[in-house]
Amino acid sequence: MKIASMKFVAAVLFSAITILPLWAQTNEPGGTGTNNAAPPPSVSIDRTGLHIVGEASYGEPREARLSTSILIQNLVAILSFFGTIIAVVGVIAYARNRKKNMLHETLRAMIEKGAPIPTELIAKPNRARRPGGDLRWGLVLTALGIGVMAIAGKIGLIFLLVGVAFLIVWMVEKKNRNNEPSGK
To answer: Which of 14, 17, 29, 121 gives the lowest tally of CB atoms within 10 Å of its CB?
Structure first.
């Protein structure tokens, strides 16, 4: 169950990371279809930093200057965000690989000694799902979606709809369990 929930959380985070920039690009103000934007500013880079020269709202030229330290801070923030994601995935992959290697070493040692290998060691564990697992996840994610929608808007729809999907799965499985013959 832990692996399934980790995969689910990873899928939700991945979809949120990929959908948010697309949503921000399509959610532009003034949706008239005409391009009322000012001409793009000219950009120059020198030792002191990045200089952006464009027109202010009242028609006079203005210059925005970003120092090198601000650019480095932004770069470090972006790299640390994606570096954290890569590090988490790497640690999970390393732990799984180490677990498999330890199992193989155990099997190798048992084969060399001629000891019988129990089938439980080779067979994958039978992970039975809890009957109320979908209900619990559905309620938690639906509540989380409503809360995130209250704070962050449309991004909460992801959690809300996934929670509703869990609730639908729970209802369908409950209906199927009730329709099964009880004479097993």
So the answer is: 29
49 and 100 co-located in one domain: yes
H or E element, residue 44: strand 42-46
Give the single-character DSSP code of 153.
G
For 54-99, the pLDDT digits (tens) are 665 555 556 566 667 777 888 888 999 999 999 999 999 999 999 9
Polymer length in residues for the chain: 184
Whether residues 158 and 118 fall in one domain: no
28 secondary structure, DSSP code: -
The answer on 119 and 49 residing in a single domain is yes
> Checking DSSP bridges between strand 61-67 and strand 49-55, what pairing results, if any?
antiparallel
Note whether 49 and 123 are same-domain residues: yes
109, two tokens? 């040692």
Pairing of strands 42-46, 61-67: unpaired
Kindly report the CA angle at 136 between 131 and 137, in degrees rounded to 5? 110
The verdict on 122 and 137 lying in the same domain is: no
Q: Could you give the angle at the alpha carbon of 106 between the alpha carbons of 103 and 107, nearest 5°?
A: 85
Cβ density class 99-129: b for 16+ within 10 Å, e for less: eeeeeeeeeeeeeeeeeeeeeeeeeeeeeee
pTM of the model: 0.41
Q: Which domain holds residue 135?
A: 129-178
